[in-house]
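Fold tokens
===========
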Amino acid sequence: MNKIEHIGIAVNDLTASGSLYEKLLNTTIYKTEDVPSEYVKTAFLHSGPNKIELLEASDENSPIAKFLTKKGEGIHHIAFEVDDIKAEMARLKSEGFVLLNEEPKRGADNKLVCFVHPKSAGGVLVELCQEIAFNSR
């Protein structure tokens, strides 16, 4: 794992929370995106070299909706950048970690993602992120 890629924060209202975090971090949202595979709407902010991802449920059955019902707004996950997500998934499985998906899937911000179950990671939901390379034809 190379570095912390971002910290994900579950929110009830992306617009209101976006405004709050823009004021708090003295920056602006630089990107919003719908992620149909996860049933979420996201907004990204920079804080120095770090990124914050705000996540709002776009469906009542989404993992974010369930998280908000159970725990309320707050830190949802920590994401780490990796060079080879499939190799990192295999390494973690061999170390006994439980993955929430068997194959990487497309996430927000042009990334392939995979989640590590919090029960096998000390209660923390961990996301692996690999930048999707563009074909240069």
